[in-house]
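Task: encode each sequence below as structure tokens.

Item 1
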Amino acid sequence: MTEDLQSIVEGARRAFAQAATPAELENAKAQYTGKAGRITELMKGLASLPVDEKKTRGAAINVAKQAIEGALGERRQALADAELAGQLKAEALDVSLPGRGREPGGLHPVSLTLERIELIFASMGFDVADGPEIESDWHSFTSLNNPPNHPARSMQDTFYVDIDGEDGIPYNLRPHTSPMQVRYAHRHVKQHAAAVAAGQPMPEIRVICPGRTYRVDSDATHSPMFHQCEGLWLGENVSFKDLKVVFTDFCRTFFESDDLALRFRPSFFPFTEPSAEIDIQFQSGPLAGRWLEVAGSGQVHPAVVRNMGLDPEKYIGFAFGMGPDRLTMLRYGVNDLRLFFEGDIRFLRQFR
């Protein structure tokens, strides 16, 4: 009897070992522990046996059944392991390949220029001001001696938004950063009003105003959105000579060259009088010998000084405005302004 059960167990093990797929294994299992399997038939035959023999025979059959189920579980695991191994082999990764690491980031070339400008002027004692990009008509034009219907406004066609200001004129996207000068001067005057009333001299105003500006203009050297940096120095004894010294020192420091000439060419701006365009000339390199316009400047107009809350009979000074985008083009030898705003990683990667 025991030998019969042992032969059944051995037969089951052979059948399970020969099963190459889970489906074949389940078919082999059915021959032994299924509803019509050999172990199941033996269990049914226990009913006709005497009680003592039934216990002994039943215990032996259970041992055989457990051995068969153990072999079945081992074969199931073996088939599952084989399937996983085949899947891993089919989807194998070549870990010998180098990793695709992320490239280090960097500042935009115009941002590098703005940082450089701020550091240079900070070394001369200038503050850095900030202000809103959506401005009132008064701050953008009227406070700068450029009232409504003034022909000079046509030089600064700008974008307007559908929000009216206190004067009934719509707000605009600022065409220059000059409004920040006016706002800074008002804060400065208010901050020192008590000291001035007590007879103390008001500290000079020295500030640069970098930021984004907007005009209806677009070509290889102009963009509807561009950057500007304006500067203001007001005090009781600030002259045009100071402007020349400050801007000459700035240009030579910015371009890291003393071999650089500047000229101040008479011009017109509503907010300065007298006014001058500032040109630079490199004495060596690919741009040697050419005069290149880099900024506008002049002595602040008395009307603008008054709009800043100061007495133009007592305070005098100069202002200037330059384009960081153009300075970036000159510093890095870029010939198309639009490259700065297209977001081409191949171009920007050069400035990391």
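Item 2
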Amino acid sequence: MPTCRPVLLIVAAADRDAQTYRRWCLQNIAAHYDVALICEKEPTWQRPWIIDAEVADPANEEELLAAGRALRRRHTLAGVMTWTEWYLVPAARLAHSLSLPATPASALHRCRDKAASRAAFARGQVPSALSVSVRTEAEAHEAAQRVGYPVVLKPASLAASMGVVRADTDDELPFAYGHATCAGGGKVEKTPVLVEEYLAGPEISVECVTHRGRTTAVAVTHKTVGMPPYFEELAHVVNANDPLLPRVAPAATAALETLGVTDGVSHVEMRLVDGRPRLIEVNARLAGDMIGHLVQSATGIDLARAAADIACGHTPHLTPSRNRAAAIRMIYPAYSGTLTTREIDTDFADRTDWLDQVTFQREPGTPVVLPPQGDMFTARIGFVITTGTTAAEAQARSTEAYRNLTIRVAPE
């Protein structure tokens, strides 16, 4: 039934991992906007929260534009957005072709291309990592000698730590280069490899909202990464009263300004080296791993709605309404194999009011594959989300929840 609400066009992936990690985005946006969707296959789980859809490959510019024009013929579109990394540039081009507000596609290309980001950071004097783009293993060896071990190798594009690996010596470099080169199975993007200085220090991200060129840093996410020499993200925590926020917000704001991001929600990753922020990368979209949900749970700020508001040219609501902490811990197997059991103690779950969510994204009988043969998309079994009055309490509770899980894997 038609409504008086603005219609927002969302371009997004439709796979099962999107269902697990982006359903909250769609639910939150649909509470305030009518949603029209473009995705690569017929919508299923999205149906309760959308009013219309077109099936098209968002990576195909002609298909995407045709789908967008078809939806515009049926609706008065107020904006276009995406939370899918691969579709940032195509969605921006679609928005501009429909005369709707968006960050310039050229700026989003700089965000997506980590080599271009590093060059922009250097020009803008934003503290970053020394980085060299290479296309052969021989070039990687030469670059590692120039940068100095340890080094980090990563694809210049992609996301979610896919293909990111550390090498400490010349002997480790061939494997690292091969791992970075083969990330994503070559199915999504062909991309050169970067050889970068290893930044030793705690890893964080700053969740930012930019509207008409003005950025507000709303939260800091503290990350736990592991499975060396890889950088798989194991856990995150957000604290509404994080004292680090005013210290790192200027670096995040400078990075977005340098790259030319004018509108949208961004996830700015950095490491603290000797207490000072050094930029890793800018993801000009809502963060993955349920981080936006953590921000809302801890502060009350709805980043999904903020992204929708900005896409439609409206001023986002960024006033905090909560004052607590929220944590997520990912569920990984101890080794690769076939998942046979995944469950949580029901008595524990029923009596625990701080257990916000337990989600399993793999069914028993399916394979789970750790690096180097796999990545987070093939290894993760699910996650638990907990809350607390402080970050330490929320994290301790996530550990307690983890201990009440039963995970069994039949090894390969």
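Check on item 2: Residues 199-323 form a domain with the D-amino Acid Aminotransferase; Chain A, domain 1 fold (CATH 3.30.470.20). The longest helix spans residues 16-30.
End of task.
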